[in-house]
Amino acid sequence: MNMEKYDQVIRDGYEFNFEKYMRDGWGLFKKGAGSLIGFCIIVVVMLLILNFMPFVSLISGFLQAALIAGIFIFLRQLMHKRDNFNQFFEGFNNFGQIAIFVLIRYLFIIPFAALLVTFIFPFHLFVDLMSGNIDSQYFAEEIAASLEGNIGLVIGTYVVMLMGFIYIYMSYTFTLPLIVDAKLEFWKAMEVSRKIVGRKFFMFLLLFIVLGIILGLGTAITCGLGFFIVMPYIYCVMFAAYDDILKPQSEDLSNQISEFGVQEKDINTESEDDGR
């Protein structure tokens, strides 16, 4: 995939069409609603089972990312009416690239978690607990007292953590579709996603807030059942935005048309030579 096109979008900017993404996402969802809802149910059940399995639960985040990537593969084929349910699991064909991306994203989050622990965790008492000088009840009471005595610091730290999480997860919104749909390597996909989202960060933030409100209301009003409708719809909106902003298929299509013309000309030339 030619990076020049993505560099041009990053350099020149793009129009963020909020209404179009919501509308096109809904159109995509309606086309494959049955498959999308069914797959969402399968994923939720699978992740719930994995979380009760020792050690396997540690890699559930990697599996979840591969399954989400499969949704983007399905949606691309759905656009061309070539969809089938097996495509939801084709994200595992790029599992190595996806796993490295998820691992790096985890590593980016660690400093924010360490920030909270550094400010409120009583390390000196932890040493005493490990050496047997104090019991676990006293240790827990001291942690509670530390939290109460530094409530402003704790709230401020949580705010910083939340902002960090939001920035990281939003910046890499397009990484998975760029890996499985545009066929970029994980680092190039991460950088393209970060720079693209960064151009219209607050518009993306607004989009995610609206989608989050829809998810919360839809889930609460339907006693949880709405989750299996709204969640796949959210991925449809994300894919619609990705497809509109980056247009990853347009270059491939133009290349195919160009090659088709060349091939046709070559065939005609060969036929003329044979006739001679």
Q: Report the portion of residues in β strands.
A: under 5%
- Cα radius of gyration in angstroms: 24 Å
Uncertain runs are 251-267
Mean pLDDT: 84
The helix-strand sequence is: HHHHHHHHHHHHH
Shape call: globular
Give the number of helices. Answer: 13
Overall number of strands? 0
Counting helices, strands and paired strands, the structural category is mainly alpha
Largest sheet: none
**What is the rounded distance between the termini?**
41 Å
In helices, the fraction of residues equals over 70%
Quick structural overview:
The protein is mainly alpha-helical.
Provide an overview of this structure.
It is a single chain. With 276 residues, the chain is an all-alpha fold. Helix content is 80%, strand content 0%. The chain contains 13 helices and no strands. Helix 4 crosses helix 12 (227-246), helix 5 (95-120) runs antiparallel to helix 8 and helix 11 (201-221) packs antiparallel against helix 12 (227-246). The longest helix has 28 residues, at 248-275. 24% of the residues are buried.
